[in-house]
Design goal:
The complex is a heterodimer of chains A (about 60) and B (about 230). Chain A is mostly helical and about 60 residues long. Helix content of chain A is about 80%, strand content about 0%. Chain B has about 230 residues and is mostly helical. Classes of the chains: A mainly alpha (about 60), B mainly alpha (about 230).
Chain lengths: ~60, ~230
């Protein structure tokens, strides 16, 4: 490799490397957004449930 | 979705801007390396990812220490958020290094001290996340996480110095390395600027992700508390 005059042809490895780097970062970002949305849905559901439970507790 | 605080929005904007600039510097500003060719460009984000991993695990150890001293759960949230980000970026570091190694070392993997210590470090923190799942009591979980985070941090300096004290083929770009190292190169001023800028950008990425992940942890705890309240009614 040291004796060659032109740089090695390694474009495909570079492309693969950046697909892995940017892809992993993107997947982690999507996972954060997805988990946050799911938790917010859980929170809304809990709000609805507690609104239903409270009147029934009062009536008893 | 609950609106992000103004400062977080500003930080996100700065981080996105820096990331776009970093991509420009890596692909256009920095010259093509004379021997390795284009694959050398992976080096900028490869090292920056390793840097984020080390910083993240340091923050975990510090947050663990503060939690043990103050017993305030917010520090446990910081610790676990930081480990998660550290694991993601250490994985990126190892995976991108392996891809770089294929054309340069002619192998995807070799049992080199740096590769082995980095992988042990990654597995230690993956175990941290898995073991936490097995503890139901939040205070016990936080105590365990804090002690584990401090002890596991020993793996970080060992990983850093492994290429400086053991015989290795992994190149040392900054400082002197083993003469047997393969893939070492001299950085031109433009390469050095792209490298330093990548480090800065990834530090901002870490800070931004940490903030979002801490918010996620807080919301998760709120949901758990609400569920417990509902079950007790």
């Amino acid at each position: 490799m040291l004796l060659q005059e032109a740089p090695a042809e390694t474009f495909s490895f570079m492309a693969f490397g950046f697909i892995v780097i940017l892809g992993t970062m993107g997947l982690y970002l999507l996972s954060l957004i997805n988990r946050y949305r799911n938790l917010e849905q859980d929170m809304e559901l809990l709000d609805e449930l507690s609104a239903k439970v409270e009147p029934s507790v009062e009536s008893t | 979705m609950e609106a992000a605080p103004r400062n977080l929005k500003i930080l996100t904007g700065i981080t996105i801007g820096l990331f776009v600039l970093a991509l420009y510097m890596v692909f256009i500003y920095a010259p093509r390396e004379a021997v390795m060719g284009d694959v050398q460009r992976v080096f900028y984000f490869h090292v920056a990812s390793g840097w984020v991993g080390a910083v993240a695990f340091l923050v975990t150890a510090i947050a663990g220490g503060v939690y043990l001293a103050k017993r305030d759960r917010k520090w446990d949230r910081v610790a676990v958020a930081s480990v998660e980000i550290g694991v993601v970026f250490t994985f990126i570091n190892i995976a991108s290094g392996s891809i770089w190694a294929r054309p340069i070392w002619n192998t995807w993997w070799t049992w080199d001290p740096r590769l082995v210590t980095a992988t042990i470090m990654l597995l230690l923190y993956v175990a941290y996340l898995m073991l936490r799942q097995g503890i139901d009591d939040p205070d016990r979980r936080a105590r365990f996480g804090s002690v584990y985070g401090i002890v596991a941090f020993v793996s970080v300096p060992i990983t850093f110095v492994s290429i400086r004290i053991f015989r290795t083929i992994h190149p040392v770009i900054i400082g002197s390395g083993d003469p047997a190292a393969e893939g070492a190169f001299d950085m031109t001023p433009r390469m050095l600027q792209a490298f330093m800028f990548s480090l800065l950008t990834f530090t901002f990425i870490y800070a931004t992700l940490l903030w979002y992940r801490i918010r996620l942890g807080r919301l998760s705890e709120e949901v758990e508390e609400r569920k417990m309240e509902m079950m007790s009614v």
